[in-house]
Amino acid sequence: MGYSLHFGAIWASFDRLLSGLAIGLGLAIAAVLIGTFLGLLAAFASVGPSRLGRLIAGSYVMMIRNLPLLVLVLLVYFALPQAGIRLDKYESFIGALALYSGAYLTEVFRAGLLSVPKGVVEAGRAIGLTRFQTGIWVTAPVMLRNALPSLGNTFISMFKDSSIAAAIAIPELTFEARKINVDTFRVVETWLVASGLYVAACFAIASFLRSLERRFPKF
Amino acid sequence: MTETLHPLLEIRGLRKQFGTVEVLKGVDLALNKREVVSIIGSSGSGKTTLLRCVNLLEEFQGGDIVLDGETIGYRISKGRRYRIRDRDLSRQRSMTGMVFQSFNLFPHLTAAGNVMLGLRKVRRLGRDEARAIAEAWLGRVGLAQRGDHYPSQLSGGQQQRVAIARALAMDPKLVLLDEVTSALDPELVQEVLNTVKSIADDGATLLIVTHEMRFARDVSNRVVFMEQGQIVEDGPPAEIFGNPRSQRLAEFLRNTRT
Ligand SMILES: Nc1ncnc2c1ncn2[C@@H]1O[C@H](COP(=O)(O)OP(=O)(O)OP(=O)(O)O)[C@@H](O)[C@H]1O
Ligand SMILES: [Mg+2]
């Protein structure tokens, strides 16, 4: 009386799963791009000379890291309209995931900044670069290269976390899988295929990132 | 050749403390244009700190540093001294070149990129002009073929010569060299010393901290002996090495002779 597998119904809707996958990737890319910007800003602030800057960066990281992503997503989605800020569900999810990834990336970049040799930064100052120019042309590129592996891991995490968007009815992979599950009652097949897609996509992203790491010179 | 009336660099009564520890206790030192001065002295005597103050990498609590007639690092207002803005510090810093013991090349840039960065962003030259100057300087230090190499692909001696090219390409009025061979394998020391020597011969103004006594004697117009944050002796190399006046210098030389 075992459960016998029938994938036929799933293959019929496979294109929906693929488009869900694409949406998830798109959400993650947009969020991590904005998150990278936030993370750089907060990381520089957190090692910078301004006490207020350090306080703001520290509070941001602490608050976000102590919030479950689902709660943050719902908060942004339901609370912002009350404050008069109208975003569609995509914008609101990207915003929430950007805030979330930004906090994790702050830590990644902060560690990267602390790993840039002090003497290299001083060499930048010594040739006459201003503090800001040294940040842009010396500290940031050295730090980004050091942070590339962690940046890749964060991106993969954010891609997986894009499944949370199902909670606000964004038709990404998890949302589509749940609909197919309800329509076909093929519970095991549906979630097996969805899982396979997540694993394959993460594997592909990881290989891509590794090739990117190889492209940039190692120090 | 224009002879200026004032020295190119004039350090007067320089005082520097780290916390409560006084590291420079009133240093006076003047350098004329095209002069090569070596600073010798035991570990912890304040030689590095002195160079770092001149390059404005350290703040100092008393005295003045005047570079080519301009007081650098501080301004006086209503009898109080204030550190000047970062932008002005950077401009003044670009007038002196610094070569560090540990090379400190930018690891993400090629040899040519290292030399070009200051030319592009500080002197705001165009890419082609900056590249031409960088290539000329790399040739000058014997690395014409290595412009495309990253620091990790160069030997220590080659890295240090890139660092020298990076400093000199900015056309500084004064170059500060802090134990530029101390981090090198013995067989690589000579190539770097030769490079420094040839730059000195070309008329650069150099302030050199070194533990290489023979080199100090060969390259310098004057040698300065520092001890515990003060300059104890200052004179031509023949006198400093041949006829030390103070007990402390005589002792130092005895201990460093191999
Ligand atoms: N950042 C710092 N904070 C506190 N003390 C410092 C700092 N840098 C240097 N010192 C102290 O200042 C004194 C002078 O140091 P400095 O590096 O200038 O000596 P030095 O003559 O260059 O020695 P060496 O020959 O070993 O390079 C030393 O006692 C050192 O411990
Ligand atoms: Mg030193």
Word description of this protein:
- The complex is a heterodimer of chains A (219) and B (258).
- By secondary structure, chain A is mostly helical.
- Chain A has helices at 8-12, 14-47, 51-65, 69-82, 89-114, 118-126, 131-161, 173-184, 187-215.
- In chain A, helix 2 packs antiparallel against helix 3 (51-65), helix 2 packs antiparallel against helix 7 (131-161) and helix 2 (14-47) runs antiparallel to helix 8.
- The longest helix of chain A is centred in the first third of the chain and has 34 residues, at 14-47.
- The N and C termini of chain A lie far apart (60 Å).
- The model of chain A has no long low-confidence stretch (mean pLDDT 92).
- Chain B folds into two domains: 1-95 and 174-229, 3-Layer(aba) Sandwich (Rossmann fold), CATH 3.40.50; 103-171, no CATH class.
- In chain B, the strands form three sheets. Chain B has a six-stranded mixed β-sheet, with helices on both faces.
- In chain B, helix 3 packs parallel to helix 5 (156-169) and helix 5 (156-169) runs parallel beside helix 6.
- Chain A binds chain B through residues 117, 119-120, 122-131, 133, 137-138, 141-142, 145, 217-219, and chain B through 55, 57, 86-87, 90-91, 93-98, 100, 102, 104-108, 117-118, 121-122, 150-152, 163, 166-167, 170.
- Residues 18, 23, 41, 43-49 of chain B line the site of adenosine-5'-triphosphate.
- Chain A: Belongs to the binding-protein-dependent transport system permease family. HisMQ subfamily.
- Chain A: Keywords: Amino-acid transport, Cell membrane, Membrane, Transmembrane, Transmembrane helix, Transport.
- Chain A: It is a multi-pass membrane protein.
